[in-house]
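Title: Prediction job returns without error message
Component: structure pipeline
Severity: low
Priority: P3
Assignee: unassigned

Description:
Job completed but the reporter wants confirmation the result is attached to the right record. Sequence as submitted:
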Amino acid sequence: MEKKPTLLQHTLIYGAILGIVSIIISLVMYIAGYMPVNIKSTILTGLISIAISIIFVSYGIKSYRDKVLDGSISYGQAFVVGLLIIVFSALLGGIYNLIFTNVIDPEYMDRVLEATKNSTYDMMSNMGATDAQIEDSMDKFDERIAKMTPMRTFMQGFIWSVIFGTIISLIVAAFTRKSKNPVA
């Protein structure tokens, strides 16, 4: 008889796969020189990330349902599976980002922040903002940048990943739940 993986083993595997795929995409974007520094590119990057997460969470829940729970899973169980996949993926991605920004390319974040600042400046100028408004906005941007540390960035990224992952898991769980009793 085949030994079935535990919930933790299953979600760790799928979380690791999602994390590795996300890291590969991040590396491809880095090698290609793509930096999400304006609203359009940030939204595009976010949508791609959400779509990939939905795919892996859906597949992970269905796999757990079919291979471990013999074809049925409650909404709550499906939600927990999805959320754990996201948590493990976010941890792996956060660790990668710490290594990337501290070892692989420590100047990368400075380049992204400078490009973001320039993009914001251009956007505000094109929208007709006054010089005082632009200067005030740039000063606030600099204040936020000064408060950024690698650990703070890690925690913020992890928290946002878990928030979006919770929403994704809630939605995907509704579509992947399946009871043994077709009436229930």
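Comment from assignee: result matches the submitted record. The mean pLDDT is 89.
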